[in-house]
Protein 1
Amino acid sequence: MADRYLNLVNSPVGAALADRVGLPKPAKLRRYAPGDPVLPGVALVGSTGKAPTAVKRALTGAGVEVADTLVDGDKVSALVLDARGVATPGDLAAVREFLAPGVKALAASGRVIVLAAPADGADITVDTTRQALDGIVRSLAKELRRGATANLLWVTDEASLPSALRFFLSGHSAYVDGQPLLLGAGTAPAPKDWDQPLAGKTALVTGAARGIGAAIARTLARDGADVIAADLTQAGEALSKVANDIGGTALHLDVASTDAPQRLLDHLAAHTHGLDILIHNAGITRDKLMANMKPEQWDSVIAVNLESQLRINAALLAGDQLNDQARVVCLSSTTGFAGNRGQTNYGATKAGVIGLVRASAQAFAGHGASTINAIAPGFIDTEMTAKMPLATREVARRLSSLQQAGLPIDVAEAAAWLSSPGAGGVNGQTLRVCGQNLVGA
Ligand SMILES: NC(=O)c1ccc[n+]([C@@H]2O[C@H](COP(=O)([O-])OP(=O)(O)OC[C@H]3O[C@@H](n4cnc5c(N)ncnc54)[C@H](O)[C@@H]3O)[C@@H](O)[C@H]2O)c1
């Protein structure tokens, strides 16, 4: 479903009209295309404490040009502030000092990344000040325009810093805005080739015949993985097309069926050298107000969106088909954070998934340093959302800081990054890919 409004306000006549009437002006986002540099211009790097050596090393390693000071009149493509040194509310002035002139110089589709140390319970004033950074980043994200984003990295361990900086600075994270993410300890090797970070990996994507699942299957293949695209038997031709397009294989699998975990294990044993990446994407909606909710509407959504993930994960952890340093990514939704009228069943499953990854993180870490994380998409243009009435869809599209819906590729990029070796320090987290959706942000 093309966003005609976005195209209109990006034409000269439409832009002038939108300005005159005060209408939102969503920008064309900087999305990744193979061969793109991590950042098209300079990153201004600052710190509230010690010299940001690790940050600079990671940036130069990613081919990013780094500057310590702003040159009058010059634009920068990113502002990266290492704010791990803040300890008192007075220290936050240094954050303003860096960001205020920096934001004025930020180019279209620019990136603001703030690194922070999470609260550790050692000192009330320090923990208070650290949390204040969250409010700065979320508010700044709402102020930025022209496709620029701001995100916060809580860092307890720098293992995944190089990979996280590449993701958040590049076009891979175009629709991730106003979000915090915790980088912790983990095994996070740099890939041999950053353009093919999933080379040699075997991945399975459920619900891969269309929408977000198809985009994830294509993106994992783009990044070098051998992909098994799984979906219902009814998905037939659409599923075969995705599998053929990416040189992968198709698997008919109803994730909610009783024998799904065993069939999956059997398939992996017969056709692969074990699974490296699993994307639990299959999902359904059966919306009704609670007062009118029928048992079958309740049960089917719980079975497909939540129980299937628990059962398949348990079977993989108990069996011998999940390789070490595996990556599992589960699809949640901003509804799992904020709730949504008419979606108590769906909301249960999507909040449940947030709990599932948090509760499973240790078990996966214990399985050869594997990880499990979730992605919570906001409003994404797919066949699921195309069913909405036109007016509701138009309003929903504008209700984010980026003033537009996301595309399936935006969710797929996050899934591909969380599936990559370098993201090994991210575990048990839920990353929202929602353009800082005003609902559930
Ligand atoms: N589209 C959005 O805006 C949005 C927002 C938040 C979360 N999500 C989540 O993202 C995921 C994908 O959403 P989408 O919009 O691409 O949906 P979609 O309806 O377009 O596609 C879902 C796919 O899952 C498959 N599927 C359904 N039940 C299955 C089962 N039992 N076994 C195997 N496959 C099954 C379907 O055949 C279909 O191919 C879902 O989990 C959804 O809840 C979507």
Protein 2
Amino acid sequence: MSHDMPKGRRIYEGKAKVLFEGPEDGTLVQYFKDDTTAFNAGKHEIMSGKGILNLRISEFIFAELEKIGVPTHFIETISPRQQLIRAAEIIPLEVVMRNIAAGSLVKRLGLTEGDALPRPLVEFYYKDDALGDPLISEDHIAVFNLCSAEELAEIVTLAKKINQRMVEMFADVGIRLVDFKLEFGRVKSDDGTRIVLADEISPDSCRLWDIDSNEKMDKDRFRQNLGGMVDAYQQVAERLGLMSDIEEA
Ligand SMILES: Nc1ncnc2c1ncn2[C@@H]1O[C@H](COP(=O)(O)OP(=O)(O)OP(=O)(O)O)[C@@H](O)[C@H]1O
Ligand SMILES: [Mg+2]
């Protein structure tokens, strides 16, 4: 693992990734660790090989989204655990898109896990670990100026577009996209500031169920002590046709 550490200055260590200064101004290196946490880091384990799988799956999804016009922070993959990305000013929101009831939505509204929602649901959580990332409304975002109304409209449009594409992408390989979390950031360029999709999209941040058996193929395997988490992530990569790249790496 030590042979694959970025050379730049370490800027931020999160629960699953480390950010390093990139080779050029305005760039960062996102390093994917094997650390796996849940319940706001109340539960923590090292899951060998997870970082490599998440990088590859996230890279693939970001590339598919770029193809349909979603701007992202992704520049290039440097190594199996390192991605070169554009540095963004992260908007402190976790944007959650839901297609099927699961997780906190089930608890909050007394639903049954697996209930289909009448249409995709967009939720906003205030990104603050100390507060446990509380659910907030559009009006909280406006009152506390977490982003502008124009930015929020752009984020919601992008989140819905991303959901449509990802539902298709996973359905094509026999996986139900239950829900997922997105982060967006501001990137400055010559022609002003624009919103880009940032962070990662991986089985750490999505709920993915096998279409036939409803078997969980995501971080709920860890949260719920079901075992086989890395094997499940590998199965996701395999179905997306990404395992040959990973074995070569
Ligand atoms: N393009 C980007 N520019 C700047 N920061 C980014 C970018 N993409 C992701 N990040 C941030 O990098 C960090 C990635 O680390 P990680 O996912 O491990 O954090 P985390 O433990 O989930 O903590 P946090 O609560 O800060 O998200 C996150 O804080 C994320 O918001
Ligand atoms: Mg994170």
